[in-house]
Amino acid sequence: MSSDSIVLALVIFLHDLFTAIWVGGLITLGLTVLPAAKKMLAGAQTRQFMDAILQRQSVLVYISILGLVVTGAMQANRTPAFQGLFGLGNAYTTALTVKHILVAVMIVVALLRSLGLRRRSTSPSPFQEKLSIRLLFLNLLLGVAVLLLSGFMAALASA
After folding, report:
1. What is the 3-state secondary structure (H, E, C) of 31-85?
2. What's residue 119's pLDDT?
3. How many CB atoms lie within 10 A of CB 3?
């Protein structure tokens, strides 16, 4: 195995790991932790518990976002079907463009949730709490869509 192959394998591994941390965290929070917290804890306790989790998870998400940008840039030209950033020349590049747009929206939503809604006030209004939960589920759905597009891209790259 050449050194280029080893580097590429490590870059792909890290890209997948950062994706698993971010999207897996969203799925875990939205489908297991939040419903369990709401069921087991009172309103203020739920908020404190979720804030503690989100504070720790935000660091992982920020590292993952940075890691995804770096590893994604390193992978950009590895597929012959790639026709440039934000191109629409073929199915692979179009899927990649849509994926990048969805990831950009996910980053904005993540920053809005962690920097805008959570840090603005120690006692968020019911509207802010509902908005934060809706944004969590929006990012969860966007993350699943990104994974689906990645699957299509892998199939298109090998075709």
Report:
1. HHHHHHHHHHCCHHHHHHHHHHHHHHHHHHHHHHHHHHHHHHHHHCCCCCCCCCC
2. 59
3. 7
